[in-house]
Design brief:
Elements: H1 2-20, E1 57-63, E2 68-78, E3 84-92, E4 98-104, H2 107-123, E5 127-128
Antiparallel strand pairs: 1-2, 1-5, 2-3, 3-4
Length: 129
């Protein structure tokens, strides 16, 4: 039964390709370019929840002898529920790496945690980029 279904599907695909040409000829909007494309970069809007002086911390660790080229990025961001999150992103330079969020009730405790993590990485030979 499986083979007969596959044969019928292949036969239908062959007939439709002979009748209509390629699949691209079926789509009249294939070459349409929109000014509202979802692939465009979105603007980053300031939510006003963070203070203007707040900044993210980017640390790098480079050791050519050990073929090591790592980064560690720390940022404090507001969450959707009124909390604050410390976002950690780390990995090899040139990759997306991994990410982790730690939630805090207020911005001061989140920034304190951010600086504590930066100090720990500084002890492991990470330096500001």
């Amino acid at each position: 039964m499986k083979n007969s279904v596959i044969k019928v599907l292949l036969r239908c695909a062959y007939i439709s390709s002979r009748k209509y040409g390629s699949i691209n000829s079926l789509n009249p909007f294939a070459n349409f370019e929109s000014n509202h494309s979802l692939d465009r970069l979105l603007e980053i809007r300031d939510t006003g929840a963070m203070q203007p002086g707040d900044a993210s911390i980017l640390l790098k660790r480079v050791d050519p002898d050990r073929n090591m080229n790592r980064y560690y990025h720390l940022s404090v961001e507001p969450s959707l529920f009124g909390e604050f999150a410390v976002r950690r992103t780390w990995g090899r330079v040139g990759t997306l790496g991994r990410s982790r969020l730690d939630l805090f009730a207020d911005a001061l405790s989140a920034q304190a945690h951010q600086h504590k993590l930066a100090a720990q990485k500084h002890m492991r030979s990470y330096r500001p980029a």
